């Protein structure tokens, strides 16, 4: 299992980088958050919770992809409603589903897109993309068609694209689910060492061992919030208890 190490030489977190105040969000017919209040200060924050508990919605609130129906969300001093256009230069996002992120045919174009949007000349952005690829063991990938990559390779390209834009906050939604163990361990270690604030949702709770804070979401509410060593066992015990209950109910019934 992969464990993301704590960053050693990182500037200490002092002021909050994000705040959610009185946030209500409805998606479709469902109220996901009814009054969510969070202050985020730590440089390594993990989100855990069952499917549908609100992890992706919280990450999308932080990058302005979803705006609160009521309440406010501020990240690095930017109000996600008022300053939406400034957010992409500050807040990077790695989607759970690579097809929601990748828009260009070649790997180099995909990675260079963010910096070009921010005003970097194309040749410079392309050269930086190639250097970034080489640093992550993907030298020569620049001209490759994204459509020819495996799911895990696409996931890696998505992570590198997010990093290329030089965000100060990186939001990761299940970023390693398709990566092989070697790439997962390498990338987790590299991400852990970056001087960038990370907020990551994952079902792979071992990744949070070096984190400073884990928030457990349950049905759109914060069920527990604190140090990984305290929160992860609570979540696991709760998940196991509910699984045992479900298995007990199923006992004797034929599997459909
Ligand atoms: N596009 C949508 N339209 C309507 N409802 C949605 C939409 N996306 C999510 N939801 C609902 O919002 C709730 C929270 O979903 P969300 O994707 O934030 O959960 P999650 O914790 O990230 O789940 P997972 O672990 O499966 O990724 C769920 O009840 C889900 O059904």
TrEMBL record:
InterPro entries cross-referenced by the UniProt entry: AAA+_ATPase, ABC_transporter-like_ATP-bd, ABC_transpr_CbiO/EcfA_su, ECF_ABC_transporter_ATP-bd, P-loop_NTPase
Keyword tags: ATP-binding, Nucleotide-binding, Transport
Gene3D superfamilies, per database record: P-loop containing nucleotide triphosphate hydrolases
Pfam families cross-referenced by the UniProt entry: ABC_tran
Cleaved signal peptide residues: none
GO molecular function per UniProt: ATP binding
Domain ABC transporter: 18-244
UniProt record similarity statement: Belongs to the ABC transporter superfamily.
Annotated protein name in UniProt: ABC transporter ATP-binding protein
